[in-house]
Amino acid sequence: MLIVISQSDGGNSMNTMQLKRCALLLATLLATAGASAAGNVQDGRQKAQMCQTCHGVDGMASMPGTPNLAGQVEMYTAMQLSAFKAGERNNAQMSVVAQSLTPQDIEDLAAYYAAIEITVGKAPAP
Ligand code: HEC
């Protein structure tokens, strides 16, 4: 599979470093998806027990200041967990939690949260 990410000279909101990191992460995720099966929802469900105190059993956060994970785009969740693990994103709680996660754990957790169905209601009228 060939992926070309181009960057125009001006006006791009991502800097080159971010773009490289993003491309690298994408390549890693794709390689992982190719080598093993991608995330396993049932395994992710089991592993999510260690996250439920803060993020809720169903991915709806039960603690103030904690984001909902239910229905989140799989790749986004995986990217954030990898960033916490790599120290590129820092948070007192998440940086500790992410240390113990293997790449497979990250895939499984991301698959589980993405598999939770959510319904979006109407946005407030302008
Ligand atoms: C002790 C509470 C706690 C536990 C346990 C916890 N988290 Fe978090 N999580 C947080 C907080 C607080 C944030 C917000 C971090 C920030 O502000 O950067 C967060 C952020 C995240 C994010 C980023 C969400 C986004 O929208 O960017 C992901 C993904 C995540 N957690 C996944 C997990 C997973 C998976 C587990 C279990 C393996 C877990 N968390 C366990 C408290 C927790």
CATH homologous superfamily heading of the domain at 38-115 = Cytochrome c-like domain
Give the SSE order as H and E letters.
Answer: HHHHHH
Please count the beta strands (DSSP E, at least 2 residues each). Answer: 0
Which class do the helix and strand fractions yield? mainly alpha
Q: Compute the number of helices.
A: 6
What is the strand content? under 5%
- What's the CATH architecture of the domain at 38-115? Orthogonal Bundle
Q: Label the overall shape.
A: globular
Radius of gyration: 16 Å
The first-level CATH class of the domain at 38-115 is given as Mainly Alpha
Average pLDDT, all residues: 85
Helix content: 40-55%
Distance from N terminus to C terminus (CA atoms, Å) equals: 44 Å
| Bound small-molecule species | heme C
Runs in which pLDDT lies below 50 for 5 or more consecutive residues are none
Largest sheet: none
| CATH fold-level topology of the domain at 38-115 | Cytochrome Bc1 Complex, Chain D, domain 2
Please provide a written account of the structure.
The chain has six helices and no strands. It has a domain of 78 residues: Cytochrome c-like domain (Cytochrome Bc1 Complex, Chain D, domain 2), CATH 1.10.760.10. By secondary structure, it is mostly helical. Heme C binds next to helix 3, helix 4 and helix 5. The site of heme C has 17 residues, from helix 3, helix 4 and helix 5.
